[in-house]
Write a structure and sequence with these properties.
Number of strands: 0
Structural class: mainly alpha
Strand content: under 5%
Order of helices and strands: HHHHHHHH
Number of domains: 2
Number of helices: 8
Length: 139
Amino acid sequence: MYGNREQIRRVFLDVRDKLEQGRPLEPMEALIADVLQQHPEYDRLLSDPERALSADFDADSGQTNPFLHMAMHLSLREQAQVDRPAGIRDIHSRLCRRLGVHDAEHAMMECLGQALWQAQRDGLPPDEQAFLECLRSLG
């Protein structure tokens, strides 16, 4: 799922529309639909496409970007599916059994966010080993 901010947000909005209309979903859309259904707190925003497309979310004032949040769920699921970085599949599976998928991924997001922030700050690719170490520390 690549593109600019509006394109990525439209993917979520289009899947939400398909869900509401009972239309069939492509495999990636089914993953997105699952994440959407796990986050009913975002439904009000997503029900207003114009607002959803134009909204800015200020992390400094404690606002969570729902699109980033849901994209992180998807990223973790895709990483686990292809086991990249090597070992994440087992960690994801173990945490999901212990905490449930949603809560496991929320815990894992802290590590993912930290790895992405560090990479952006340093101008380097994410450090996969540091990411895995953080994930392993979750238990």
